[in-house]
């Protein structure tokens, strides 16, 4: 096929060389929870297009929102101008989060960059120029974001010599540990005079390893930030909008951050859009924020994002996610005790099989595709984050494919 052959020789794909060492499968369409391939196969999408298509594909309400907005304007600059889709989305987000100030960005990584800029501008007067985070985290692929990703086991070690050096505590354990609480307390106290902010992914560490940790650590970080006059940044790009069983990861701990980053599921997987929100106090301390993307608050993206959040508010997403959690727990139980399997874990609409050794990604994909499923494993992880409206039969298909892949290892 001409598309596939040209793609292989000329197009970079995520975290891959060019030419690509493995085939890239040509997609011709997507609807509901399925994607259609050029070779005629249909696959149940267990990835929600990297966790973004929470409502599935071609939802008529979201299609209509795009079409209606396209009839008015596709884009207009946000410098000196504004428009209803952006303002109404901001109104929705401030009500959902309790954070009154909104900066619209292009992508999740840029939302993190903006959050870091906010924190550093806010802390500049007191000479606070560093951030603290925990190992095992992932916050994006741009330079500011890379600097707060895991410096040892992350994907960005080759850039270590040119990144700012921030402060890292160890990986947060799954269960509440007094020893780890003490580590957090001592790390913050030791560096408090230089820390502008603490940045973490609430409760779930996503692309850094799909780890789940006890909400008590997030509560203690909120307390420590308040005690030492440090900002708390919650990177909710992967955890926001119901994925973990709560609307936001912070809700598991009952805390509100000073700055919150949102993305991925914000538009229901239709267009790239992110947002960084903050408190009134932070906004006043920052003043003029030196950032301004060309496509900031794009009307098409903000229109479909508002429609997606309205749809989320109306659908029984809590019940859907609880159902997915139950189905994943039951379906993945067969992987426990398999040779080479280190752990099986489920939280909300996230299911993970962690292996002892790095998986053979092409081989895993061949196995799951033979079962009629699309997954994208990485590192030592075979995992799924399915769309919320997935049915029980399709969910069972995903878990059978994951267990089969683990058995094949």
Structure description:
Helices cover 37% and strands 17% of the residues. The model has no long low-confidence stretch (mean pLDDT 96). It starts with a helix and ends with a helix. With 409 residues, it is of the alpha/beta class. The strands form 4 sheets. A 7-stranded mixed β-sheet has the order 4-12-11-10-7-5-6, sandwiched between helices. The protein folds into 2 domains: 1-58 and 316-408, Aspartate Aminotransferase, domain 1, CATH 3.90.1150.10; 73-314, Type I PLP-dependent aspartate aminotransferase-like (Major domain) (Aspartate Aminotransferase, domain 2, 3-Layer(aba) Sandwich). The chain contains 13 helices and 16 strands. The longest helix is centred in the last third of the chain and has 17 residues, at 392-408.
Task: Work out the radius of gyration.
Answer: 21 Å
At CATH level 2, the architecture of the largest domain is 3-Layer(aba) Sandwich
Q: Total strand count, please?
A: 16
The CATH topology label of the largest domain is Aspartate Aminotransferase, domain 2
Question: Element order, helices and strands?
Answer: HEEEHHHEHEHEHEEEHEEEHHHEEHEEH
SS summary, helix count: 13
Approximate strand percentage: 15-25%
Name of the CATH homologous superfamily of the largest domain: Type I PLP-dependent aspartate aminotransferase-like (Major domain)
Mean pLDDT: 96
Major sheet: size, sense and barrel closure? 7 strands, mixed
User: Which structural class do the helices and strands define?
Assistant: alpha/beta
- Strand adjacency order, main sheet: 4-12-11-10-7-5-6
Q: What characteristic shape results from the CA principal axes?
A: globular
Distance between the termini: 31 Å
Uncertain runs are none
| Number of individual domains | 2
User: Helicity, in percent?
Assistant: 25-40%
- Report the CATH C-level class of the largest domain: Alpha Beta
């Amino acid at each position: 096929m001409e598309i596939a052959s040209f793609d292989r020789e000329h197009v970079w794909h995520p975290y891959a060389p060019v030419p690509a060492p493995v085939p890239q499968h040509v997609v011709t369409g997507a609807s509901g929870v399925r994607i259609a391939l050029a070779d005629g196969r249909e696959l149940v999408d267990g990835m929600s297009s990297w966790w973004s298509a929470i409502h599935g594909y071609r939802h008529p309400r979201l299609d209509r929102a795009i079409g209606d907005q396209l009839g008015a304007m596709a884009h207009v600059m946000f410098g000196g101008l504004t428009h209803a889709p952006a303002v109404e989305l901001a109104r929705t987000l401030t009500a959902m989060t309790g954070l009154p100030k909104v900066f619209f960005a292009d992508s999740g990584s840029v939302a993190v960059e903006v959050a870091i800029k906010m924190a550093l501008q806010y802390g500049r007067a007191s000479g606070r120029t560093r951030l603290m985070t925990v190992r095992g985290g992932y916050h994006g692929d741009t330079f500011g974001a890379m600097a707060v990703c895991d410096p040892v086991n992350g994907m960005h070690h080759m850039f270590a010599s040119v990144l700012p050096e921030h402060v890292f505590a160890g990986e947060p354990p799954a269960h509440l540990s007094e020893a780890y609480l003490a580590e957090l307390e001592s790390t913050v106290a030791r560096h408090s005079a230089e820390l502008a902010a603490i940045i973490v992914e609430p409760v779930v560490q996503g692309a850094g390893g799909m780890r789940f940790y006890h909400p008590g650590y997030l509560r203690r970080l909120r307390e420590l930030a308040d005690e030492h006059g440090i900002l708390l940044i919650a990177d909710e790009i992967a955890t926001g909008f119901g994925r973990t069983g709560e609307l936001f990861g912070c809700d598991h701990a009952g805390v509100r951050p000073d700055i919150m980053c949102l993305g991925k599921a914000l538009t229901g997987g239709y267009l790239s859009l992110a947002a960084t929100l903050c408190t009134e106090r932070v906004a006043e301390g920052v003043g003029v924020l030196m950032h301004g993307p060309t496509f900031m608050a794009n009307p098409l993206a903000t229109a479909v994002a508002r429609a997606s959040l309205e749809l989320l508010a109306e659908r029984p997403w809590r019940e859907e996610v609880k159902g997915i959690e139950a189905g994943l727990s039951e379906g993945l139980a067969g992987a426990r005790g398999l040779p080479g399997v280190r752990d099986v874990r489920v939280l909300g609409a996230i299911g993970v099989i962690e292996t002892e050794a790095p998986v053979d990604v092409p081989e895993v994909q061949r196995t799951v595709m033979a079962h009629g499923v699309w997954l994208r494993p990485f590192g030592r992880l075979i995992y799924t984050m399915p769309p919320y409206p997935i049915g029980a039969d399709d969910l069972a298909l995903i878990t059978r494919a994951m267990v089969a892949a683990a058995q094949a290892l």
